[in-house]
Here is the input.
Amino acid sequence: MDDVTRALIDISAALAGGSAGRLDSALRAAIDVAPPESVEEALLQSYLFLGYPAALRGLAAWRRISGLPALGKPAKDFKEWERRGTEICSHVYGGQYEKLRANIAALHPDMERWMVIEGYGKVLGRPGLDLVTRELCIVAVLAPQEAGPQLYSHLRGALNAGADENEVDEAVRRLLGSLPPERARMLSEQWNAVRARRAALQKD
Here is the structure.
């Protein structure tokens, strides 16, 4: 794992479960190693999992600490989002993709559409950050929350996106020390379950 990915994981974890001071420290550390565009993408995507208040808090802290103006221009590729979202979501979920869409649609059809178009098309399909790093940052955002099934899915998603198992393992170990015991236990259990399933499939 490179220093950029480590810095973005630290920012994501601090935004999800840390104090303002911890977030400031993670952002300051990132200035020396991570491209500003990558930091902004990690902060932007957090709104899918933490909500607008947390994402706005993270971006405000980044503006204050970096002194940089907002990068890029407002997205206008609305027609592209559904195509891009379908492609990326199916890549992340692999053989579970159709089942996932059916399960979410059963909860509410609009939520299923938002997941693909809004989540994967509009946000996670943006340029500026590769999919493996996005998935590892999502793991960092989910780990402090009561989100076991989603955490499992994105641990698998990181592997499906092309992460090496050792890379995901390093990310998990990096997160464990900052989590309360019950969340650390959940993260370990979900990661062990992902690895066990992966090992079983490789034997078949």
